[in-house]
Design a protein that fits this description.
Strand order of the largest sheet: 1-3-2
Largest sheet: 3 strands, antiparallel
Structural class: alpha+beta
Shape: globular
Bound molecules: zinc ion
Helix content: 40-55%
Distance between the termini: 35 Å
Amino acid sequence: MSAEADGKFRERLADATARYRLYLAAHKMFFTRERALILEAALQQSSHFSVDELLFDMHQQGMRVSRATLYRSLAQLAEAGILSGSDFGHGHMHYEAAIGAEAHEHLVCTSCGAVQEVRSEAFENAVKEITGANGFSETSRKTEIFGICAKCRAGKDGS
Ligand SMILES: [Zn+2]
Ligand SMILES: [Zn+2]
Ligand SMILES: [Zn+2]
C-alpha cells in the first residue's frame, strides 16, 4: 500500500471506528479488540465478500475468530451503516464497505451468480437530477440489475 493509500485507509478506519463505537454504546456493547480486528479486516476487502470469504481471509492471516462472531459483527456493521449488505439472490449475504466507497451499480447474473461492479457518469447525473428535483439528499444507494452476463450468454460458462 502506498503512503497515500495507507493514509486514506487510516482515515476511513478512524471514521468507521467512531461510528461503530457510537453504535455499540447505543446498544450497550463494548468496542473489543476482536471487533476492532473484524472492522479492519472488513474494510481491507477490495470488493464484495461473504462471511465465509472473510473468515477464510482472517484465518489465513492468523486471526482467530469464530464464524458466529463474524456473522454477528458484520450484521452490526451493516446496521451501523459502515458496510452495506446484499444477498444478490444467492441466499447468503455479501458485504462491502459503505464508508468512503465510490458510488457504483451491480450487474448480477442469475445464471452463474457473478456480480460485476459498474459505474456510469450518465447514471450518476440522472440520480442527481432525480434526487435534486425532489429536494432529496442521497445518503446511500443499492442498485442491482439482474440478468444474464456476457459469459453465460456466450455459453462459455460450463459450470
Ligand atoms: Zn454469493
Ligand atoms: Zn453469468
Ligand atoms: Zn459493490
